[in-house]
Amino acid sequence: MIHGHDDALADGGSIEQNWSESQRDIMEATYRVMLTEGYPDLSVSKIADELGKTKASIYYHYDSKRELLISFLDFVVDQFHLNIGEVANKDPEPALKAVIEKLIPTEIDKERFQGQVVLTELRSQASQNEAYRERFTEINELLVRTICDIIERGIDTGVFRDVRAVHIAEHIVATTNGARTDRVTTDREAAPAAVRASLLSYVDSELKQSK
Amino acid sequence: MIHGHDDALADGGSIEQNWSESQRDIMEATYRVMLTEGYPDLSVSKIADELGKTKASIYYHYDSKRELLISFLDFVVDQFHLNIGEVANKDPEPALKAVIEKLIPTEIDKERFQGQVVLTELRSQASQNEAYRERFTEINELLVRTICDIIERGIDTGVFRDVRAVHIAEHIVATTNGARTDRVTTDREAAPAAVRASLLSYVDSELKQSK
């Protein structure tokens, strides 16, 4: 799910948390190591090697691997924010469809597939790890709020029917989360496209005000 | 998600794979150890202790912990089959709603919560482990096929509109999978009930033939 992060970071400013350049470098390196090594084999040494720096230079910013990983999840939250923010400001109907399309891409390259593997692993840790759970709670909150806002904007402007926005937003977030996890944990390659098609047609039939 | 398995196993017969009594005992013990210890700390010794038997008696059935875990996932697939089969034979509309209600229970006790934690951990391994991925593929296939059959039955009998059954089945499975994973990986306690309500009302508005 972390994609287009170079562009996203390039425009700076809008990002929630302020990341210093070294912190960003560490986060980017952490992500690259996760992509190649996977989450279980991640170590501060490998991140340092990837950065071409010493372990001490990482421990200067983060007291422990644990702290670094929590910070990495904050970074992931910010990426979600940026990625979704990019499209959420369109008119309600195209905005909602664009968010769904972003959350369930029909095809993904190897890097994004691997990114999703990493996120699925991190998410599974969230059931045991409170700090992780807080971040995944934040990601879901953010997505539900963004989608809810779009739907409410649609209702206010008469494009959408007067539906229960929060229920539908929760529905859409659960569906897109399920589709993304299923993509990397099953061999059912045609499934994400079918889910996406059904969700987009749901927007048309359930939300759009009939003319 | 493994629930009501005692009842389910009691009626026997309908289960896909034939499990000998000792194999069932080992699977049940594996599940109990996973519930208390979590997946990462699972060991054959602990399963043997839980059973009150020797490790050798487990290795008599399974060559390795790896093989035992794959068999455990086959057992999970069978549980899904039994749990869903129980309700899928009703009339199309109540059957579809009962499947959704079973897949997104509004409240779950500690044991079922912990069972979902274990399944989420096992599922996250599926991206790296082909044998696991096959089992989760099978679970999703089974759910999609069951829901698709119900929808097609509804179309044939004129209860449901002539919709694209497979797209809607994929949509429902992704949504329920997402809701179940979100339940154990976030602190958003009200979310599953909202998703379930939205999905049930989707069945009414999208599928039901207007009278």
Run of helices and strands of chain A? HHHHHHHHHH
Strand content of chain A: under 5%
Helix amount of chain A: over 70%
- Sheet/helix structural class of chain A: mainly alpha
Oligomer: homodimer
List keywords for this structure.
mainly alpha; 211 residues; 10 helices; homodimer
3D architecture notes:
- The structure is a homodimer of 211-residue chains.
- Chain A has 211 residues and is mainly alpha-helical.
- Chain A contains 10 helices and no strands.
- Chain A has helices spanning 5-10, 21-37, 44-51, 55-59, 65-88, 92-103, 110-125, 130-156, 165-185, 191-207.
- The two termini of chain A are 36 Å apart.
- The relative contact order of chain A is 0.12.
- At the A-B interface, helix 7, helix 8, helix 9 and helix 10 of A face helix 7, helix 8, helix 9 and helix 10 of B.
What are the SSEs and their pairings?
The structure is a homodimer of 211-residue chains.
Chain A: H1 5-10, H2 21-37, H3 44-51, H4 55-59, H5 65-88, H6 92-103, H7 110-125, H8 130-156, H9 165-185, H10 191-207
Report a brief summary of the structure.
The structure is a homodimer of 211-residue chains. Chain A has 211 residues and is mainly alpha-helical. Chain A has helices at 5-10, 21-37, 44-51, 55-59, 65-88, 92-103, 110-125, 130-156, 165-185, 191-207.
